[in-house]
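dumping this here so i dont lose it again. seq + smiles for zinc ion
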Amino acid sequence: MKSKPISTSPASAAASPLPPAKRALTRSGASSRRLQAEAVARELQVQLGERSYPLRIAPGLLGDPANFAGLRGRLLRVVTDQNVAPLYLQKVLKAAGISADDALILAAGESQKSWATLETVIDWLLQTRLPRDGVVLALGGGVVGDLAGFAAAIYQRGVDFVQLPTTLLAQVDSSVGGKTGVNHARGKNLIGAFHQPQLVLADTDALKTLPPRELAAGLAEVIKCGMLGDAALFAKLERQLDYLLTLDAATLAEIIERCCYLKARIVAEDERESGPRALLNLGHTFAHAVETFTGYNSWLHGEAVGLGLCMAADLSAKLGWLPQADADRCTALVARAGLPVRPPAGMQPGDFLRLMAQDKKVAGGRLRLVLLRAIGESLVTADFDPAALDATLEQFCASEAA
Ligand SMILES: NC(=O)c1ccc[n+]([C@@H]2O[C@H](COP(=O)([O-])OP(=O)(O)OC[C@H]3O[C@@H](n4cnc5c(N)ncnc54)[C@H](O)[C@@H]3O)[C@@H](O)[C@H]2O)c1
Ligand SMILES: [Zn+2]
């Protein structure tokens, strides 16, 4: 990754000239909160030529009308789910200046990423007559983002959309990069489109209501970013994971920014995944095997990714590419995040091999994996000794099952 196609800057370093204690004394509650939010705010520009867009990360973004000012004068529709709606929908409606009639509340969960729900969304957009220059706002986790983003991609041949991600996974991963879509009975994400959002607002306050298991699942993608391309992020996580888990806004904003920066940089180089974008799949070939084995209903995606990261690091060590001590650091961090580091009960090496062979990363009959040369340096390769993979699978499957 030689080029630097995206820029990063603290959103408004000059906005907080007073130390926090004095600010609290001299400002009303609301404006003091706003100044504190501005002090930790981060902003990136995802550089994709005419499809470039800003990505803002800060506490309180969803309730701040300033963030929606650029959409004034256009008709807006919000798509969200029934867990997120009671928590954040009113805030967004008020800040964006729209009414409850402009919102569609869907059931929650991966099963909603379906043809049937897509049709519901499209029907509703037609019924409520969203014009070609209208905007779809996706308020929720990756499910809502992928579904509403895909609806926006195909409604009247494509309308603008804004990502308002409310899970850690969505804030560091699914809301950036423009992959949208739904699942098919034959597999996940088999139907979709590349459709970049106009704007991403990652409100770190939203993470306060996230169930701990969902937070841990998002952390798997954060750890993945450190392992695949940001050694300093990995080291920061090792130092500050416990503090991060207290949801300190400044720490969260910095970590989310680093992940988005890395993803945006890779996407800017390879928007349609013909090359380096595949690096973002570190741990995912192992993870997809676990998800398929368990039928997509007991392990969260991020939990499977956590295990996959440990397995990819272990294999890299067995190949002699990564010091074993570094592979052990990866496993230790995954475990500290509260993620599983052992395969599901009953899963055998043969199950991994069979299911990994079905993964789309198999090219020309050879399994391609993302592996590590160091923490922070990854490569995609089919050129590895299969005996080392067998040894990793044997070792993990022999360990006590989760
Ligand atoms: N487009 C991409 O590039 C990309 C990348 C990674 C993952 N994904 C997709 O993302 C999806 C997973 O996303 P996810 O993990 O965000 O799952 P999700 O959208 O199902 O959200 C997880 C759960 O948390 C709830 N929730 C969301 N925000 C909340 C909040 N702030 N407080 C309380 N509850 C909240 C949701 O209702 C849901 O029950 C998968 O479908 C996956 O394929 C897409
Ligand atoms: Zn993932």
